[in-house]
Amino acid sequence: MILIDATGEFHTLGTQAAHIALGADTDEPDGTKLVGLSHHMMRESDRNAFLNPSSGTQLPKLREAIRSLRLARALQEDNGAEADHASLVAADGTISKAGVRIARFGSACRKYVEVMEDPHAPFDLKVLSKQIQWECVWPTDRNAPDQFGTMDFTQIGYVSTLVSRMNDLIQTPEVMGVIDPQPGTLDALEEIKTWIDAPNGHLLRISLRNLTFANHLREIVVNILGQALIGWARSGVFRAIPVVVAIDEAHQFFDVTVGDEFANTRLNAFDSIAKEGRKYGLTVCLATQRPGDLPAGVLSQVGMTVVHRLADGRDRQRVEQAAAELDHSATRLLPGLVPGEAILMGVDFPVPVSVHVSRPLAPPASEGPRYENWGTSE
């Protein structure tokens, strides 16, 4: 089982689980591995949700800038690169197109097209804002049609807000530490894959406790993890040994839409897992206090439901809609359940079953504030 711990309250599992943490390993159990998730593992939709470019000028320029930086990286790493191509790259790792012969740049693009079109090819995020501006040139020079033109300052004005966001982003250490980790930082996806391949792996806890909420980073990181898991599942990795992914505070990560009415992105990796993962050996387990915030299409796929106390009418209605065997009399019991009591519903239960859940050996650190300590000193 893989546990995505949104709040860090399951750190009490201690040695019963393997632990990896994003953002920082503060207040995590001994042996926790600090991991990152490099930005080049983002799909374009994830990156758009992260940077929020407008669909007019900013998005095409962002795409071109990323392709140029992938080309620059490939040229820098190729010791046998042609001198005419290698000289395109400046000392800071960017490519300025202004005044460059179009055929010269096109020749380099054709040679390294596989790298440029690889959606996960690495590039230097720190110079992306500068490269976006270098893309703002006239298509041709009025005096030399075989060359790119000079800088187009109108286009630079159009991308200025995106450039400002990028410059602010690279100065935010809690974000860059995750998506552009320091050398030597472990890769989250590699650690998950290693754990899956280990014969004695039983429980892997992924802690988001110290992961910032800025730039929708939490939702995007979880979406990337979900995309990786469903990709492995479709390739048959989990057919022999199925995997269950448990998500705490699940309402934060399902059917998330990032952006505005003009340009938005849906982060729906775990929606796909809920709908089609089981046939590939990948099952999702949801835990939430707000079932009313979960999409109806996801709840309709649930095979078994464990319902604790629900006081909100909208939440009770959503559970009642998802569980056909839950009648009105059982619904009226939900507001009166006490901690430890639950109702089980699902395909294996002809009628809802009331149960009392035993206290776990390692209960999560989910207790509320201790107001009884007011006025006391330790």
TrEMBL record:
Domain Helicase HerA-like C-terminal: 244-324
Pfam families xref list: HerA_C
InterPro entries (UniProt xref): HerA-like, HerA_C, P-loop_NTPase
Name the record gives this protein: Helicase HerA-like C-terminal domain-containing protein
Segments for region (Disordered): 359-378
Domain of life per record: Bacteria
Leader peptide range in chain numbering: none
